[in-house]
Write a structure and sequence with these properties.
- The protein is built from 14 helices and 26 strands.
- It is an alpha+beta fold and about 475 residues long.
- The radius of gyration is 25 Å and the shape is globular.
- The structure holds one RNA strand of 77 nucleotides.
Length: about 475
RNA sequence: CGGGGUGUGGCGCAGCCUGGUAGCGCGCCUGGUUUGGGACCAGGAGGCCGGCGGUUCAAAUCCGCCCGCCCCGACCA
């Protein structure tokens, strides 16, 4: 229905994957680079990342963590200390073998994540229970060699945050894992307007070297699942292999309990895929680099002057306006292009509201506010805009969240038999809530058979006796299956 | 790594079969007219046709080898 306006990108329904790539490129979020599998994040895309990054950074600091930095390289011997960890990451590690014109005595891994090197260093910082908890966070880049890459979603290098904490007790560490996950839930839901389901990963999906992994999972508009953040209970695994010990209150030497949790630039891709439509991006106001773009319309110099005068008065009125994500971010598009061109230009870029001001509007003392998500138009008095916009933006943000929630509800299915499971997955896709016995073999078979994986054992789903899809053994509750990114 | 496709101005493509030294659309630059859903006219810039070798008087075009990229099959934030 909106197709008639769109010339630059493929239809979302017909070719979601092509649509996604076209949006990333045409909206100038990202570009390919001379290095295969590694992307360039352009100003508009980086601004979106900065917004979610800053919001998460505030949460991390508010909850007592400090930002730190650790090296890009991890000596091979360190990476190999934790057995499961090496095994899990080895295929994805890029190695530096030469430097200074010579072959290195010991290879250096380009960090795929920093657990190993952090554990090695902090063992010199932790002597006593008084040194705990140790709450650190890194904003950095990591490299994981990927075979098939997609802009933002899976690239050989990505930007992220990795928190690393050490605690005296298992309970404290468990609380920390939950704290990290709550940060991701809140950024996803409150900032990106993407509803998530919280839960625990199956054994097969657990981080290499972790005791358990919790995650938040979101549904994209092609009904596939995307992991929006993971929080790991490392137990004493890394502490033990690195030899970190502290003297506790009871005068016994113990290994501290560790956690780590991460959130990456993949969430820029999630934001695109959770809200976008056939005209391009649809950005939640909290992350939109421009929340409102003014398109001036005029026929002649006289009209132009009238419109320019009205816009100048808006500048004064908008100066102090606050939104949920800080001062109102708005701009005027004075380029020498036709209004229609500008409408399409800013719709492609997902700007929440467009404000059209023409001579007729100025004469009537109003402007036409057009909402990106459904192109709903509303004429508002010029002198009411400053007061009205924050409310409009907040309502729009809430509306996008609700729309995504409704979409997820409409595409979540409860199935009880394997036949139904396959049928629904092929017909509709989406989230499938189904009984599972907990066995690795059954999980593996379903994946090999259908391409779906267990995304989570959700925290919020009720206990419900059932029988496993595959082997018919008893199941205590439904788990979330989906095809995933 | 196995199967399929493709490489020609910034982007998308035609030309190749039937050899004769390159064309279209978009974009870009200049000037003018325009501006309420992707404006129009005129002029202009821009290409060792993926690379190397061969056939030929002559190769984007025919032949051989190599390289890159895209899609599909085993892993992942």
């Amino acid at each position: 229905m909106t197709m008639e306006y769109v010339k630059e990108i493929p239809s979302k329904a017909e070719a979601f994957s092509d649509w996604y790539t076209a949006v990333c490129l045409r909206a100038e979020l990202a570009d390919y680079s001379p290095v295969r599998g590694m992307m360039v994040i352009r100003p508009y895309g980086y601004a979106i990342w900065e917004s979610m990054r800053d919001e998460l950074d505030r949460y991390i600091k508010r909850t007592g963590h400090s930002n730190v930095y650790f090296p890009l390289f991890v000596p091979r011997s360190l990476l190999e200390k934790e057995a499961e960890h090496v095994e899990g990451f080895n295929p994805q590690v890029a190695w530096v073998t030469h430097a200074g014109g010579e072959e290195l005595a010991e290879w250096l891994a380009i960090r795929p994540t920093s657990e190993a090197i952090i554990a090695e260093v902090v063992k010199g910082w932790i002597q006593s229970y008084r040194d705990l908890p140790l709450l650190m966070n890194l904003w950095n880049n990591v490299v994981r060699w990927e075979l098939r890459t997609r802009l933002f979603l899976r690239t050989a290098e990505f930007l992220w945050q990795e928190a690393h904490t050490f605690h005296a007790t298992e309970q404290e560490a468990a609380d920390e894992v939950a704290l990290g996950l709550e940060g991701y839930r809140s950024v996803a839901e409150d900032w990106l307007a993407i509803p998530v389901i919280r839960g625990r990963k199956s054994r097969a999906e657990t981080f290499p070297g972790a005791v358990y992994t919790d995650a938040v999972e979101a549904m994209m508009r092609d009904r596939r699942a995307l992991q929006a953040g993971t929080s790991h209970m490392l137990g004493q695994n890394f502490a033990r292999s690195a030899g970190i010990e502290f003297l506790d209150r009871d005068n016994l030497r113990k290994n501290p309990y560790g956690t780590s949790w991460g959130f990456s630039t993949r969430m820029v891709g999630a934001t695109i895929m959770a809200h976008g439509d056939d005209a391009g991006l649809v950005l939640p106001p909290n992350v939109a680099p421009h929340q409102v773009v003014v398109v001036p319309i005029f026929r002649d110099d006289e009209g132009r002057a009238a419109v320019a005068g009205a816009i100048e008065r808006l500048e004064g009125a908008f100066a102090g306006v606050q939104t949920a994500s800080g001062p109102l971010r708005w701009k005027v598009d004075w380029r020498e292009e036709s209004p229609g061109f500008k409408y399409n230009h800013w719709e492609l870029r997902g700007v929440p509201y467009r404000l059209e001001i023409g001579p007729r509007d100025v004469a009537a003392g109003q402007a036409v506010l057009v909402r990106r998500s459904d192109r709903a138009k509303e004429a508002l008095p010029l002198d009411a805009l400053a007061a009205e916009l924050p409310g409009h933006l907040a309502a729009y943000q809430a509306g996008l969240f609700q729309r995504a929630l409704d979409f997820r509800a409409a595409n979540t299915h409860h199935v009880d038999t394997y036949a139904d499971f396959k049928h629904v997955l092929d017909e509709d896709g989406g989230f499938l809530m189904a009984p599972w016995c907990g066995g690795d073999e059954c999980e593996k078979e379903i994946n090999a058979d259908t391409g779906a994986t267990i995304r989570l054992v959700p925290f919020d789903s009720p206990d419900e006796a059932g029988t496993c899809l595959v082997d018919g053994r008893p199941s205590e509750r439904r788990v979330l299956f989906a095809r995933a990114y």
